[in-house]
């Protein structure tokens, strides 16, 4: 038959002739197509009445006159995540199916404004007719195979595609011609080929088994990888055999979780135990320390899993496999298709592969994965409506979910960006977004709930001051590890043991030192002896909050800081010829902190702020609630029995010129109190 197809104006022989040079292949992930209603109708499908008994494995469900809107976003998300039971009636299945199966859906608009829904089911195994009927909302039909199963299967899908409307297909057609240029292969064909390699390919090369298999499969016309580059197939098989990728494995890293700012570490604490199921996405301003945080988190997880299986000293912590978390660092996320991004972030569900210019990459199921990107819309950030006092005290607040999505808008691939794809990524990814004023934290969820934000005040670096010096030293090529590295690892190990068990009570944190010079943009050397306030704060943080009265608190603080100042004379030389007069650093007693907040984290509101988004309301304790409780702790526990030196005594910087100064006598050093 030539020309356009017209319903009722052709016979089955015409369809057989049209598909004679085609092959149909099932695919794992659905492809979505939308058009006006096509030239053919359900009556053109080769169907028969449903049998009363027996068994069946391929059938169709016809639901006419559906008087409701089509929830396309929900259908797409449910099909992509394989949660078919979430598809609302009558667009999905009436009961839950067991075992694997393929499902094609077509939804066409009728002349009366209603819709016709056609669902084609294909199960690999025979099932009872009554069970199949229980899956259907409408009238079930079976197909007339006419003794030609392969040919009729192609005919069914050929007619199905010409029904038009909104279609969700789990099949793809290929011509029988001798191969195609690579650039003409569709994404579905690549996916089907990689699935075939993963399922059928050999894992070892004994007696040239891999080479034989590649040669046969790339030369056979019926193979899904017919005419594929042999080099690509060989690399895919090698990755499968080694459970690795072609990216370099990193085993040396100078920082630990102890080096991360307390606010960031508190935000990460309730998320750690879910990193075997969810990915971590770090968005925001460049230079804040997303890369060192990602590497420190990855190495902490690697050390934890190695300790858990008792292979200390045998397996080296690194970024890869279940013992080697993956990091996608400073890549161009908007250029990555959502299909690939969802595969990367779907940590706990699937084992996936990706075709790249250099070959194939494999992501192992349960393997912690992190990505760091700078893409976000600064102009879309909601206005800072917190009172100045609340902002300085670190009072947490919330922003609307829509505003948060607007900030992330530039980070997504514009080619296939839609609500379903974005929510699919957010469902799989814990997201931290740092701007110039706030740290936004959104635990992985498909729910559109308000997003928590934490004020950053004037310290936007994710690392502690001396830890930044250590990171800069290694970034410039330094190889020597910090002198106190082993002690930090011991602290991290104890911290990780509690967090990975979900025990967030009484976690130990290292206080954050904030450097504030309100009169200059840079720190100038001073003749005045430097007070090692960070050392004093770490040693006496517990005493500050256990002081029985203000006078004793002041006495303890003054005693600590004065003794530190006497024991550590200044070694810095002045750049001015005139000696600067001696000035005192104003030290407020720790008891003053409690005047601005109640025991439950409330605050004295000195400003009439606009109404803020409501806090999430759920019955069970969610990650958001756990995070809020951590951020509202009245005090930061002492880091523990390990008495770490800080500041110039930390030993993290290896050259005197790399040491970070804590400023001059105009600087104010505070312990960060997160509410």
From TrEMBL:
SUPFAM superfamilies tied to this protein: P-loop containing nucleoside triphosphate hydrolases
Bias-annotated ranges (Acidic residues): 654-675
Stretches the record annotates as Disordered: 547-675
Highest rank taxon of the organism: Eukaryota
Bias type Polar residues, positions: 562-579
Matching InterPro entries: P-loop_NTPase
Protein name: Uncharacterized protein
